[in-house]
Amino acid sequence: MILYAEIECFFYEGNSLKAKRSLLKRIFAKLTKDFNVAVAELEYQDLWQRTKFGVVTVSASTVHAEKVIQQVLRVVDQYPELERTLTTVEER
């Protein structure tokens, strides 16, 4: 079972691409370390106020994969510097 999530976010703090990339680097490192998922920025690389990134997990169980993605979303929501605006989750 492969579960894939696309997550769009809006940045409230920071005023540069450097600040955005620094925050995304911290988030991506935490997600890959804590949940063993693959993460990559997909769109808006040149905009400092927006991002869209993908998270993928692979599991033998649908229930386990869904729990992992939900935990990932909770971690993303814990960062006050950004707001999750649109999330799409689908099986691959």
Automatic annotation (TrEMBL):
Domain of life of the organism encoding this protein: Bacteria
One Pfam family of this chain: DUF503
Transmembrane segments: none
Protein known as: DUF503 domain-containing protein
Organism whose genome encodes this protein: Oceanobacillus indicireducens
